[in-house]
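Hi all, posting the design record for the shared folder.

TITLE: backbone redesign
STEP: 1 of 1
STRUCTURE INPUT:
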């Protein structure tokens, strides 16, 4: 739902990525974030979002899914109980959203 609600047209206006006209909403937002905090930090934040998105794609297209890779990318312990995995998914995703918000719009703690 998060990815589908991002305004791709507006993100393309802000993005600097060379393939911004071909990129999807997650990649575009990651690019915008990278201009603020650097490529490595943006990639680190977006891994949990990308993992959750890949899990969604794997659920919709199970024959082509790579669920184990998506779980790892989302920071989920595949050996944990389903309840614990759900908690990790929610915690990691919300943490990524919070880090994006703080990186783009947060206030300096010294203020």
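Okay, here is what came back for every position:
SEQUENCE:
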């Amino acid at each position: 739902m998060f990815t589908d609600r991002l305004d791709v047209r507006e993100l393309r206006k802000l993005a600097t990525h060379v393939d911004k006209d071909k990129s999807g909403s997650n990649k575009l937002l990651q690019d915008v974030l990278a201009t603020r905090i650097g490529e490595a930090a943006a990639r680190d934040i977006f891994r949990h979002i990308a993992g959750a998105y890949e899990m969604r794609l794997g659920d919709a297209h199970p024959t082509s899914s790579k669920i184990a890779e998506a779980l790892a990318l989302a920071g989920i312990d595949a050996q944990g109980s389903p309840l614990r995995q759900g908690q990790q998914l929610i915690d990691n995703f919300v943490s990524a959203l919070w880090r994006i918000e703080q990186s783009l719009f947060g206030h300096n703690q010294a203020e």
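COMMENT: The chain has a mean pLDDT of 86.
Let me know if anyone wants the other runs.
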